[in-house]
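Format notes (please read before filing issues)

Several people have asked whether sequences and structure tokens are stored in separate files. They are not. Every record keeps both together, in the order shown below: the sequence lines, then the token lines. Line labels are part of the format and must not be stripped during preprocessing.
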Amino acid sequence: MVAKKVKIASAANTIVPAYLALLAKGYLVTRIGASEHEETWQALKGGDEFISEDPVSLLGLVVLYEVRGMDWKADDAEIDTFVARFP
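Then the structure lines:
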């Protein structure tokens, strides 16, 4: 039996699943600002705060922190490697 491969693209149908994933991870998720052209979302947990323009990006920030921790920022060498690979 051939295993299915996953293909997910960021689109409107990923907003609710991203929100639900954040809830499952224990975050309090709120929309803290909304206007006709933009909105701001916030995820809170244990004093940690993540802010983004949509739940999908918000989930990305949470995972970024989970993977890289307090040293989430790229250092100069990592930036140079990235820029060299994607000029």
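For reference, the curators noted about this record: Residues 55-68 form the longest helix (14 residues). The chain has one domain: 14-85.
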